[in-house]
Amino acid sequence: MQLEIDLAGQRVVIVGAARASRRVVARYRAAGADVECVAAESIDAVDLAATRLVVLVGGGHDGIEAGETLQERCRSEGVLFSREAGAVGPGQVTLVGGGPGALGLLTLDAAAALQDADVVLYDRLAPTRDLAALAPAAELVDVGKLPGHHRVPQSGINDLLVQHALAGRHVVRLKGGDPFVFGRGSEELAACLAEGVPCRVVPGVSSAISVPAAAGIPVTHRGVSHLFTVVSGHAPLTDEEHLHLAGLGGTIVVLMGVSTLPHLVAGLGRAGMRPDMPVAVVERGYSASQRTTAGTLATIVTAAGAARCQSPAVLVIGEVVRVGLELQGGAMHLARLTESLAS
Ligand code: SAH
Asked: Catalytic: 1?
C-alpha cells in the first residue's frame, strides 16, 4: 500500500539503528518533516506527543516484540505507524578523486558520494578540512601515508575497503587528485572486484594539470608546447627514459619529484636538454602556503635547495613555464633568476 501524506512541518519519529535508518531519515527530512531519531534500544521511551508518524526501521529479531508494543501505543494515541526495511543490503565502494585540495575543485559526483557514505577512508592529499560536513553520516578513517611512514599498507587499505563493503556499508575511498593518476586506484578497484564488491570510480581534478594552473602555468600553449607528459619522480628514472623525455620536446610534469629533482635534472642535461630550459616547482597548490620557485635546468636544483622546497610539489619543465610567468608579468623574474644563479 502506498499513501501520499503531506509531512511538511509534521513531527516524524524514526526508531532504529543510526546506520540502517540514515537513508530513511534523509527521505523524510527531504519531504519537509520535522524528524526526530530514536535509537532502537530506547524504543519504550519514545515520546509520542504531537507526533504525526512513527517509522520503525529494521526491527528484526528481538525488536519484533518491542515493535508490536510501539505499534499498539501509536494506535491508541492516534499516531500513524509504519515499518521500513532500512539499508542493509550489499555494500559498495566508490573510489573518489578529491582534486588538489580546494573544496571548489571537488566534483558534484564526489560530493554526492561523500554525502551518502557510511565510511570514508582518506589520505592527507585529499580535501580533508571539510570532510565532516561533506560526509555527515560517515565514520572518517585516516589511512594516509606520509613519505617514509607507511601508516596503513596498501594491502591493509584494500582489505578495509572490502570488509566495510561486505558488512553492507557504502565505503568512499577519497584520494587526492584523480584516483587513477599515481593513486593506486586501479589496485583498489581490482581488490574490490576480486571479492565481488561493486566498485565505482569518480574521477578527480589531477594535480598534474591543476597545480601548474594554480601557479598560472598552462601545460600546453599554442605554438609553444603541444604535448605534456606526466611522470612519477618517486623512483629515479633511467638514462633511456631521460633520453625519451628530453626528445619529446614538450612539457614535462613531474609528481612526487622533489627528492629526485637533482637526478632528473642531471639526466635531462646528459640527454641534451638546453640548460636554459625553464623549470618551476609549485609547492602545496591551493593552500594558503602555495609557492612557486622558478629557474632553469641549470639553476633549479640550487634554487629549490635555497628555498628548501618540499613535497607535495609539482615540477614543470618546459617553455610553458616562461609563458605562465609572462602572463603574470613575471618574465623579468625568471630572467633575473637565470642571470643571478648563472653568474
Ligand atoms: N592522484 C594524485 C597524485 C598522487 S601522487 C593526482 O592526480 O593529483 C602525489 C603527488 O601529487 C605529490 O607528491 C605531488 O607531486 C602531487 N600533488 C598532489 N596534490 C598536490 C598539491 N595540492 N600541491 C602540490 N602537489 C600536489
From this structure: no
